[in-house]
User: What shape does this take?
Amino acid sequence: MDEKSKSNMSRRKFIRNSSYAAGGLIGGGILGSIIGTNYFGETEQPSTGSSKESNFNRALMYFTRQSDFQILSAATERIYPKDENGAGAIQLGVPYFIDHELAGAYGHNEREYMKGPFFSGTDYQGYQTPLKRHDVFMAGIRAMEQESKSNYDASFIDLEGEQQDEILKKFENDEVKLKHVSSAYFFEMLRTATISGAYADPLYGGNADMEAWKMKNFPGSQMTYLNKIGSEKFIEMKPKSLRDHLS
Amino acid sequence: MAKKLNKVDVVTVGVGWAGGIIASELTKAGLKVVGLERGEERTTEDFQMVHDEYRYAIRYELMQDLSKETITFRNSLNEQALPMRQYGAFLIGTGVGGAGAHWNGDTWFFSPYDFEIKSMTDKKYGKNKLPKEYTLQDWGITYDELAPYYHQFEKMAGTSGELNPLRPERTEEYPTPPMKSTPILDRYMEAAKKLKLHPFRQPSANISEVYKNPDGQTLNQCQYCGFCEKFGCEYGAKSSPNVTVIPTALKTGNFELRTHANVTGIIHDGNKATGVRYVDVQTGEEFDQLADVVVLTSYTLNNTRLLLQSELGRPYNPETGTGVIGKNYCYQITAVATGFFKERFNAAMGAGSLGTTLDDYNNDNFDHSDLDFIHGGSITMKQLGKRPINENGAPSGTPRWGKEFKAESIKWFNRSIPVTSQGASMPHRNNYLSLDPTYKDAYGNPLLRMTYDFTKQDQALYKYITARCAEILTEMGAEVVEPKELTEHFDIVPAQNDHITGGVIMGADPETSALNNYLQMWDVDNVFVIGASAFAHNGGYNPTGTVGALAYRAAEGILKYREQKGQLVKRESSNKLA
Ligand SMILES: Cc1cc2nc3c(=O)[nH]c(=O)nc-3n(C[C@H](O)[C@H](O)[C@H](O)COP(=O)(O)OP(=O)(O)OC[C@H]3O[C@@H](n4cnc5c(N)ncnc54)[C@H](O)[C@@H]3O)c2cc1C
Ligand code: SF4
Assistant: This one.
């Protein structure tokens, strides 16, 4: 049941139909800058984030060793693999998303409470470690490689998919010892970051060409659903990214 | 040395809904008001790039910066409390507009039963319905007394809605008609009716049509953009302090809004406050803002913390049950069941409070004689607008990562939808707020310590209501229906509910409450404490309608206080202590 309803409402019609025109009100929000931009796809802009053109965002900001980055990449691909639905984590740019996030506020826990003293606490008190996220990632990645070398005598990146899964499961089940943090916590962070990178707006370097949104039939950042919200039919739309809102 | 600033009529600590309402009402009456807000300035213009799930709903850009200040948490009295180091269970707002800038917009009136819960429960079920560890209290005000203020809040906010068949005491229509419905909400409506329940389109501050409020502020029409809860509205369509009361206050010329001003204490001289001390968080300078009346509008947590830290009022002691500041901290019990359907819905479209709900299992609308709990919760299906990072649900048994996870989470994205309940939360002797002995905030002051766990009452209520949520989904024809289980203890990690209440409660008796029904402190006549901190328990609805109503009543109280000074309400002392 893939009913397609083309969204070809023109911008003029949108403004006529919406309350803004009716009340002569421009809210000052996105609409304030709508005039002259291409919200309704009248003029297509070339997509960004695509591997077809050179993309200077695809470089390392946090990792210094390429091997660490490759291990991370392989792990994310097992969490969100390429399949018949479409692209996997690597093709979507998830490892770059994570690299860039680790270099910034996220990786450095800028908005988390990081003062001591540190105690491990009960199962209900949440994470309690002095390590910042980038430290946890680094420790986790190095430990994955260590596990791989001692169990299979090979680098994580050279293992079969199933073997990589076995290692990831050990982390998930908290069977690997890391300094000052549980391996389950690292795995949880890796999983969340992978999903975030796949589905965040492409502005962050993942979700290349909005492919992950297309797989999920998520329309991204649309201006309005005022005239669609009541539809009995499922409406497929070409997704829009925040780039489309920048005038 | 803190720099002394000239005295003003009123200073408010925090500029969200509560601070905004106080500012607008008092400045319209000609008073000079200074609003101190720890966060940054924020207007509709700041929301032009807001459709960003990662920034706002995952990294919580609009919420309080926990590196500066958080709470510590423990489940029980004999545990060591530890800091909530990152966000999880609940979120706390900051910046101009407070959490009102990014709330959903569900706008409710608590029920007549809520305000007189203790008397009504005792009368109907006898004195021992709940064991004595539950510190249930009446609020010192009735629904009828508060009703006019509720309507005042709604008219200011322009709330869209439809009359609730089980709330006959409401006499006025909503200022604007209900929002548009959707196929999934229609189905909920039909299924609930088949089950002989009483569904209706729930009240919403995502406004259904252009609306001009009595203060002359215009709200726009909701575009159902799907980025509402945790996001600001780029259209100025969601009623928020930023598009209503704050501009109204500023327009009078009597309101000075000072941002980046973090209040660290109330300055007082015995039983009278003389002002507040704050830090300019950008420069580190300290100031004393002197004022005739000090109004705490800094939300449940900081309202409580500032009183404890400033040694105003009597701190609550769980061992003896005496004292009031910190008492009756409550959460809300979010019962939820998810339905997985064969067909696809336009699940990405939606709005923060676009929903259909029913009250058949809320308040005392059903007989509790044979049940081991009181109260209940509203049961709602909402179409919030699903977003892809947060929504990866699939029937249980699906792996959490890998090939099958990916395929299933993609498959169900537009096919699953939850029925949720805001379950009421009853106060318990051991659930309370106090100052932490170990951990400090960025300014060297103790963090607030939360001691909280689910009670037997919570567990029983959760179980009962979750089963009701599931029944409706089954009637709706969901292929798979999955009720969620409550964790054994309250867990600070998973997101649950943003409605936390109590700590500075209102009541008729100064022995057992901190505030009278104008939210004036019993112990300090020129301090008013406004927010969900005043709730003596938490009801089965979202809290902000009630916060707003209480703020309008407090504004009236402050104006009265200017005329007559002293206590506005006669003390009623409890028999047991007399
Ligand atoms: C994501 C989310 C969704 C919600 N949805 C709903 C809903 O649909 N319906 C509903 O009824 N409720 C909802 N709520 C709750 C609602 O937002 C609050 O009830 C309401 O905003 C409370 O208003 P307030 O003014 O009391 O507090 P706040 O909005 O929290 O405002 C308090 C202000 O005080 C400031 N402040 C705190 N401490 C200090 C200090 N020391 N110095 C200076 N300033 C200080 C804060 O920065 C803040 O701006 C939601 C909450 C969240 C987080
Ligand atoms: S859903 Fe409506 S009220 Fe909410 S942010 Fe979008 S347009 Fe604004």
Observations:
- The first strand of chain B starts at residue 3 and ends at 13.
- The first helix of chain B runs from residue 17 to 28.
